[in-house]
Amino acid sequence: MKKRKLKQTLQYEIFLIPAFIAFTTFTIIPLIKTIMYSVTDFDGVRHEMNFVGLKNFITVFQDEVMRHSLFNTIFYTFCTMVLINLLAIPLAVFLDKKTKIKSLERAVFFFPSIVSALLLGYVWGYILSPMQTGALNSLLSIFDVGPFGFTATEWGAKISIILVAVWTSTGWYATIYLAYLQAIPSEYYEAAAIDGASKWQQFKSVTLPMLAPGLTVNTLLLLTNGLKVYDLPYALTKGGPGYSNYTVTQVIIQRGLSEKQYGPSTALATIFIIIVAVIATVQYMTMRKREEDLS
């Protein structure tokens, strides 16, 4: 019996081997090499490397562009995480209503998340162009208003990037909340109504606690996707004006591939990996505790 059970277990686990090989090849090995290169003077060409200690890490904190990219990435992640969750939950409640056009409503809100973020960035870059020929400025010129430099200033560009990201992703995350909403038994609402609970009290005491697992999932996804963002800010503003809206991934790619600064680039990547790991761990533990409190 033990041999048969072991044989069955091995038959199931053998299917994990391709995934394990792929994960090791494309994630674990590059991660180890990144950390290794971060303490050397590797230039991407020669195989000989010299140990330089923390020199590359000191360079990162002395480099204004790299420091600014860390701030931009964390600021973008925090703002999108908060705004999308605040909008996605009421949107999911709205889409959960039984109407004749509910399928159309869901499709309309979900559609922006299907299109490539890079493509949407270029489209919105044209719409929000600070030039007179920009789509929005052209429209406003009909009323003798503008032109406005929507992406011409540092904070104008930051706000534009965040708003476009929220517009793009809210429907997708609302769909996740919608799935959790539809799993809530109707008996809970019926019992709350019998007890005299108002719609708001039902939402606060029934809907929100039952959405706690969805909130944990969405927050983790928003956190990881926000911290590794590259395509949307790059397509919308090219990281500008100047380098004021560079993200960490953009700096790593630009310095590592274009300028051949492999040491500082891998050091920045290593710092970023540590930051992501710490934030994700703290966030997950906090959300799990919150989920238990609401349940």
Chart the SSEs and their pairings:
Elements: H1 2-13, H2 17-37, H3 55-62, H4 64-95, H5 102-110, H6 117-127, H7 135-141, H8 154-182, H9 186-194, H10 199-210, H11 212-227, H12 231-237, H13 248-258, H14 262-294
Structure explained in plain terms:
- It is a single chain.
- The chain is an all-alpha fold.
- Helices cover 74% and strands 0% of the residues.
- The chain is built from 14 helices and no strands.
- It has helices at 2-13, 17-37, 55-62, 64-95, 102-110, 117-127, 135-141, 154-182, 186-194, 199-210, 212-227, 231-237, 248-258, 262-294.
- Helix 6 (117-127) runs parallel beside helix 12.
- The longest helix has 33 residues, at 262-294.
Q: Uncertain regions: pLDDT < 50 for 5+ in a row?
A: none
The secondary-structure element order is HHHHHHHHHHHHHH
Largest sheet: none
Radius of gyration: 24 Å
Total beta strands: 0
Cα-to-Cα separation, first versus last residue: 41 Å
Mean pLDDT over the full residue set:
81
Approximately what portion of the residues adopt beta-strand conformation?
under 5%
> What level of helicity do the residues show?
over 70%
> Which word captures the global form?
flat
Oligomer: single chain
Instruction: Give me the number of helical elements.
Output: 14
GO cellular component, one term: plasma membrane
Protein name: Sugar ABC transporter permease
Membrane topology: Multi-pass membrane protein
Family: Belongs to the binding-protein-dependent transport system permease family.
